[in-house]
């Protein structure tokens, strides 16, 4: 039976074009019904143009307002009561959709999700988790990547539990290896936050905690889940995105610099395509917001239709994996 996913049609930098095209791609490829939340008079003509008479399960949910990237999150959430974010998340709360995806303002998405959906029992703060590629070809999780700039040890412990469950239920890792991001593997390394968190993680029963891990371990497959506060995680994520862009552009320029390299580029085009695919954020769909009472996935602001399509896929996978019930059970007070 198809699963209903609601998309913030006004979220991305190129909204609603990317969202509409991505919704159509998802409706063709996955067993989903996609609901586009936003102003009908803007969405309808573009949707009709791209459907070209095809009958696909893509629908419009009217919302008269939307939150931009320039809006101050807290103010916009209160002032824009009929925003596409709020309308979409209300559908999730009311059970009319299994999950919500947005490529819009991250701060507003988190604030709206907390207000509309509420928090899971036992969770103090939500956490954004992102999927990273590794040299082993297997994915790895990093959290938090921006929801919480300042954290205490208890927050990081909860992030570890939520990341463990997401890796197990969604990525199908039997016993996820959980590491604490620090500046050295030794227990004495790090700041007061990591040193105070370390013994708490070691004491958790049922968590495959492997100790401190370093920044270089994010991409070598040493851990399946890496935990840190949102400040460190966001810097690591944005730095990684910058390096990927630098490597891709530099490699492309080098391959075009001489006749010999151009011939080599033609011969290695497939390999270069696979390289780009492994590092492309659009393949991973978005960052789940763990800890809220519902499914909310936040995508990159520059998401194209491929990223939107994968975001819808990830939202559906999250909804079907029973992640939230497992988180509440794991964090239940004995």
Q: What distinguishing features does this structure have?
A:
alpha/beta, globular, 12 helices, 11 strands, lipid biosynthesis, Isopropylmalate Dehydrogenase
Can you offer a commentary on this structure?
- The chain is globular and about 60 Å long.
- It has an eleven-stranded mixed β-sheet, sandwiched between helices.
- 48% of the residues are buried.
- The mean pLDDT is 89.
- The protein is built from twelve helices and eleven strands.
- With 334 residues, the protein is an alpha/beta fold.
- Helix 1 (17-29) packs across helix 2 (40-51).
- Helix content is 46%, strand content 16%.
- The chain folds into two domains: 1-123 and 291-321, Isopropylmalate Dehydrogenase (3-Layer(aba) Sandwich), CATH 3.40.718.10; 129-283, 3-Layer(aba) Sandwich (Isopropylmalate Dehydrogenase).
């Amino acid at each position: 039976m198809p699963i209903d996913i609601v998309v913030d049609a006004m979220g991305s930098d190129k909204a609603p074009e990317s969202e509409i095209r991505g919704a159509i791609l998802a409706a063709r490829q996955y067993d989903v019904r996609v609901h586009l939340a936003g102003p009908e008079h803007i969405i309808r003509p573009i949707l009709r143009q791209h459907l070209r008479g095809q009958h696909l399960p893509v629908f419009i949910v009217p919302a008269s307002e939307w939150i931009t990237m320039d809006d101050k999150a807290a103010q916009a959430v209160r002032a824009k009561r009929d925003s596409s974010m709020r309308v979409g998340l209300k559908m999730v709360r009311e059970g009319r959709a299994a999950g919500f995806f947005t490529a819009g303002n991250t701060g507003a998405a988190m604030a709206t999700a907390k207000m509309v959906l509420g928090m899971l029992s036992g969770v103090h703060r939500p956490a954004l988790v992102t999927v990273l590629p590794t040299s082993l070809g297997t994915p790895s999780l990093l959290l938090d990547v921006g929801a919480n700039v300042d954290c205490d040890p208890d927050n990081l412990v909860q992030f570890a539990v939520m990341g463990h469950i997401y890796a197990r239920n969604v990525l199908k890792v039997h016993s996820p290896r959980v590491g604490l991001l620090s500046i050295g593997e030794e227990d004495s390394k790090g700041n007061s936050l990591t040193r105070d968190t370390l013994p708490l993680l070691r004491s958790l029963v049922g968590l495959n905690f492997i100790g401190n891990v370093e920044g270089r371990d994010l991409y070598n497959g040493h851990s399946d889940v890496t935990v840190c506060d949102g400040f460190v995680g966001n810097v690591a994520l944005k730095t990684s995105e910058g390096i990927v862009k630098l490597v891709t552009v530099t490699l492309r320029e080098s391959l075009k610099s001489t006749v010999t390299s151009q011939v080599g580029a033609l011969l290695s085009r497939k390999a270069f395509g696979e390289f780009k695919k492994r590092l492309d954020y659009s393949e991973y769909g978005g960052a789940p917001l763990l800890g809220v009472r519902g499914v909310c996935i936040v995508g990159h602001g520059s998401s194209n239709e491929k990223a939107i399509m994968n975001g819808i896929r990830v939202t559906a996978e999250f909804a079907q994996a029973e992640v939230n019930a497992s988180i509440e059970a794991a964090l239940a007070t004995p």
